[in-house]
Design a protein that fits this description.
With 378 residues, this protein is an all-alpha fold. The protein folds into 3 domains: 147 residues, Hypothetical protein af1432; 122 residues, no CATH class; 66 residues, no CATH class. Helix content is 63%, strand content 0%. It is globular. 43% of the residues are buried.
Length: 378
């Protein structure tokens, strides 16, 4: 039974290209399955979060991260009576537009694309699901429902100001009401992203040796978790101690989000998903005390992990890869694979060509980008 403020499958605004209903799956289940079977989703296997793909098999990739986000989203949305399929769909799609080499690759490509309308991974995800996936006979993209597209576009909140080119293009074709908040399911996907990366970046940072458990004993949230484990299991071996502590950090974040959402929903008593969109603020969020504590942890991760000397050294290397591949393809588009040539030949101007090149470079995995750079640039 779904709550009255959940997205009801039978009340979906449908797809831009009308399709017959599935016999066995709801519209949001079909959207989720199309994302899982997409080429962009498979490529997330070899796109990194923080560490470059070749640095170790243990570290999270965009694919494992997306799966973890989807798991958190299903848990929270299920407790709140939301549509778990839609929340999972948006969670699985939220990183489809990421470049190789994580945010480092995105920063490099965004600078290169400044003369041509910029680059944004969230807008690029919209470009992928509305245009770049080309597997179906009757349409480009995945022909997702309006609710799924809305969630991908604005799960982080209303989108204001000049729109990124890909988002502007999609919104012009189908008004996504970007000035409003998204459904509660999309808000759950956004907070699940925060929960997942806050948790697994602590894991990966410890695994890499960039900081230690003793460092985490100085921080809010993590310190009480380690203290609780030490009291319950004195002398526990290091790897089990680490896991037990961080699963408590994970649990506290999820429980906090659920408690806050239940309180806000009880106070507001929304009767429909439209009332959620018009509330003027997110209903799914951390409590203020936990939010402030997580800011301390994120600052710690920024300085000790994301800007660690070894990570910065690798960032410089992979930035050079993107900085050399993009202008090379702009100058010599014939180097693009055969299936991209038709788009290149139809490009009316330099901006259109730049977006085609950006689509190609952004779609690369870490491994493929490094291989292509070695092959083409020496």
């Amino acid at each position: 039974m779904l709550a009255p403020f959940a997205c009801q499958p039978g009340e979906s605004r449908g797809r831009q290209k009308p399709e017959s209903m599935s016999t066995f799956r709801s519209p949001f289940q079909r959207d989720r399955d199309r994302i899982i079977h997409s080429s962009a989703f498979r490529r997330l296997k070899h796109k990194t979060q923080v560490f470059v793909e070749h640095e170790g098999d243990y570290y999270r990739t965009r694919l494992t991260h997306s799966i973890e986000v989807a798991q958190v989203a299903r848990t929270i949305s299920g407790v709140l009576g939301l549509n778990t399929d839609l929340a999972e769909c948006i969670a699985l799609a939220h990183d489809l537009g990421h470049t190789p080499f994580g945010h480092t690759g995105e920063d490099a490509l965004a600078r290169l694309m400044e003369p041509y309308g910029g680059f944004d991974h969230n807008a690029q995800a919209m470009r992928i699901v509305t245009r770049l996936e080309r597997h179906y006979a009757e349409f480009d993209g995945l022909n997702l429902t309006w609710e799924s597209l809305e969630g991908i576009a604005k799960h982080n909140g209303p989108v204001e100001g000049p729109l990124p080119y890909a988002l502007a293009e999609a919104n012009a074709q189908w008004d996504l009401e970007l000035h409003t908040y998204a459904s509660a399911e999309a808000q759950v996907a956004a907070i699940a992203d925060d929960v997942a990366y806050s948790h697994h970046d602590l894991h990966d940072g410890l695994r890499s040796g960039l900081f230690t458990e003793e460092d985490l004993m100085e921080l809010p949230v993590t310190a009480p978790a380690f203290e609780e484990v030490d009291a319950l299991y004195p002398g526990l071996e290091p790897m089990r101690r680490r896991h037990e502590a961080l699963r408590r950090v994970f649990g506290r974040m999820v429980e906090d989000v659920i408690a806050v959402a239940q309180g806000r929903l009880e106070a507001a008593q929304p009767k429909s998903v439209e009332e959620i969109r018009q509330m003027g603020a997110t209903v799914i969020r951390f409590s203020k005390p936990l939010y402030q504590e997580l800011k301390v942890i994120r600052s710690f991760l920024f300085h000790r992990m994301y800007r660690a000397p070894s990570v910065m050294k690798e960032r410089a290397k992979v930035t050079a890869v993107v900085n050399e591949l993009f202008p090379l393809f702009m100058a010599r588009p014939e180097l693009l694979p055969q299936e991209w040539r038709r788009d290149v030949e139809a490009a009316a101007d330099e901006t259109t060509l730049a977006r085609i090149v950006a689509d190609y470079v952004a779609g690369m995995t870490d491994r493929f980008a490094l291989q292509e750079h070695a092959r083409l640039c020496g």
